[in-house]
Each structure stands twice: as structure tokens, then as C-alpha cells.
Amino acid sequence: MKNHKTNAVRILEKAGAAFELRSFSYKEVPSAVEVARILDFPPEMVYKTLVTTNGHPKGIFVFVIPGNTELDLKKAAKAAGEKSLSMLKSKDLFQEVGYVHGGCSPIGLKRPYPVFLNESALKLDRICFSAGEIGFQIIASPEVLLKVAGAKTAGVLA
Predict the structure, then answer these.
(1) Distance between CA atoms of 61 and 116, rounded to whole angstroms?
(2) I want to staple 77 with a disulfide (CB 3.0 to 4.6 A). Which of 22, 82, 137, 142 is the partner?
(3) C-alpha torsion 105→111→112→114, nearest 10
(4) What is the pLDDT of residues 52-87, one digit of tens each?
């Protein structure tokens, strides 16, 4: 286990949230489905964090969805109250949210962006999502993510 703490971990600890940490080594940035295989979790339990934009400064919206699914940008825009959204380019990710591709956590973002958790998470006792670094994952109840990230639920899958 890594012996340092990410912003996401510090925020969860400060909130007194119940969570576990898992780490793994990698050669290339793994997909969420590969993370599920590595950690021996069902693919529907491992969630990925996707960052979208409406094309305007500060128009960032974060979606947390099962790693084995795809985001429907029209449903995402509707949930965010926007006309349309597009994926934020990977090269802009660190500058906008403070995380890199493959290590983006919905907790501890650079600014308090709106976060949406796909409603399917509510059917699970625990979900797994990035702790803010590639190879470092948080396992917690969906309620922890809703509370700590101030997330809302929405149906945003394709």
C-alpha cells in the first residue's frame, strides 16, 4: 500500500467517512474494466470519473459511471441543466481539475465542480473509484461519495 495520502483520501478522513484503499502496480494506464480485473472486483463495481465541459470557462461537470459503460452526453447535459456537453480533452484535465487521465477522483477536485453519480450506484453496497492517482483506488459506499463530493444522482448511461 502506498504510504502517502492524496487530496481525496485526506478529505474522506477529515469527513470521518468509512472507506478502504487499494493500490496496484501498472505498466500502462489501465481502463476501469482492467482495474476491476486487477482488483478482482465485478466490473459494475468499479466506477470511472469523466470530466465534461460546456465550452465556457468554469463550465466543467463531472460524471462518475460504471467502468464497463459509456456516458450519454445528451443525458449528461440534461442532468447538468446544459444545452450540450463534450468530453474535456485529456491535455486540459490536470489544469482544470488537478488530476491526470486514469487517476481522476470525484473527490478533491481543484474547484467545487458539480459531480453526478450514475443512479446505478445506489443498488450497490460499495463502489470503487480513483483515489486521485493512477494505481490507487477508494472503496466506499455510494452514500459516502454523495455526501463528501456533494454529488447528485442521475441516469446518464448510453
Answers:
(1) 8
(2) 82
(3) -70
(4) 999 987 899 999 999 999 999 999 999 999 999 999
* Neighbour count for residue 28 (Cβ, 10 Å): 8
| Structural domains counted in the chain | 1
Distance, C-alpha 144 to centroid of its chain = 13
Please check the confidence at residue 145 and state whether its pLDDT lies above 60: yes
Q: Is 126 helix (H, G, I), strand (E, B) or coil?
A: coil
CA distances from 125 to 57, 63, 65, 104 (A): 36, 19, 15, 22
What's the whole-model pTM score? Answer: 0.95
CATH of the domain at 127: 3.90.960.10
Flag whether 106 is in a domain. Answer: yes
Q: Would residue 2 count as lying in a domain?
A: no
Q: Which residues of 48-68 are buried (b: 16+ CB within 10 A; e: fewer)?
A: bbbbbbbeeeeebbbbbbbbb
- Residue 41: how many CB atoms within 10 A of its CB? 18
Residue 36 C-alpha cell reads as: 476491476
